[in-house]
Amino acid sequence: MDLVEEKAIDVGGGSIPQTVGSHQLVRHRFLIICSPLLFVFIVFIVWMFWRKKKQPLEQNDTGDGSGDGSELQKLSQTDAGGGAANDGAEMDNKGEEVADEGAEALDESAKVSVTEAKEADEAYVDVMKMETTGASGIAKARRLSVTGVEASHRLAEKDLAEMLKYREVILAVGKARHIHPALIAAIISRQSQAGTSLRSDGFGKFDSDSFGLMQINRHYHPIKGGPFSREHVDQGVALLCALIHIMKRENQDWTREQHIKGALACYMAGEDKVIGLKYEDVDSVTPYCDFANDVIARAQWFAVHDF
Q1: CB-based contacts of 67: which residues, under 8 Å, 6+ apart?
Q2: Which residues make beta-bridge pairs with 8?
Q3: How far apart are CA 290 and CA 139, in angstroms?
Q4: Fewer Cβ within 10 Å of end Cβ, the chain: N or C?
């Protein structure tokens, strides 16, 4: 049985006597002490809830009112690494720059400086003065009744109708790369007969490893663009520019025209076979021993026929 005692309990500043059990007395005292604390706790919870709802509005109102704060917040939330949005934007810009550089050249060696481009541009007008003996072995293989420069001219003329389909592309790439368009047309004429010797998949009928108008070997260079595309033609011309630079570096006593002729031999045979040869012998390592001479002779013909 609970003990019974008489206590004076404060109620509203006064006191009234009341007889209660000991357990009831403890319960009453606990409620009297905890009620104010519970009230304070409830007020605190309500205040925190109100503060949390207000905070996003405050963030959106920061700055000059242009909405940059909220946009950055969205970018930060979507960033996988949780980093700043600016860092993500910088990485995107770097990625675009790398992609642009990849499209600009075939490889690192294909990048031509402004000075080199100007020098190539000076050689641009000298195609008619370049030394050439024209087609020899290829003329016999094609069963022509003539050889030399005349044979090259006949082969170029045969390809003219098809070549005109790509004239705008050739002119645009030639202007961008500072390479005479007639030289580009001549390479296309020799390599793929202006596209007529390509299979439906873009690879050569007679060389299944070489692709497109410029016949770029897939084992040595990545395939870029379609077989008749500007991207493909630019890739081939970028390679030629790199080879001209190599010839200039390896043969500093040669003229610009000789550098181009040496680069044409490299284009077909590879620079490792051409480096170290005398200028007169650069064609000795190319198919039919006449690739560079034939291309130059064809270029001279194309130069006076709309290229």
Answers
A1: 60
A2: 17
A3: 10
A4: N
Q: Following DSSP, what letter does each residue of 109-163 receive, concatenated?
A: GG---HHHHHHHHHHHTTGGGS----BSHHHHHTT-S--HHHHHHHHHHHHHHHH
Q: List the structure tokens of 192.
A: 């793929």
Q: Which residues pair with 135 in a beta bridge?
A: 148
Does residue 87 contact residue 75 with C-beta atoms inside 8 Å?
A: no
> pLDDT tens for residues 58-105?
333 333 333 333 333 333 333 333 333 333 444 344 444 433 444 444
pTM passes above 0.85: no
Here the tokens at position 277 are 């040869």
Query: What percent of the chain lies above the pLDDT cut of 70?
Result: 64
Structure tokens at 290: 């006449």
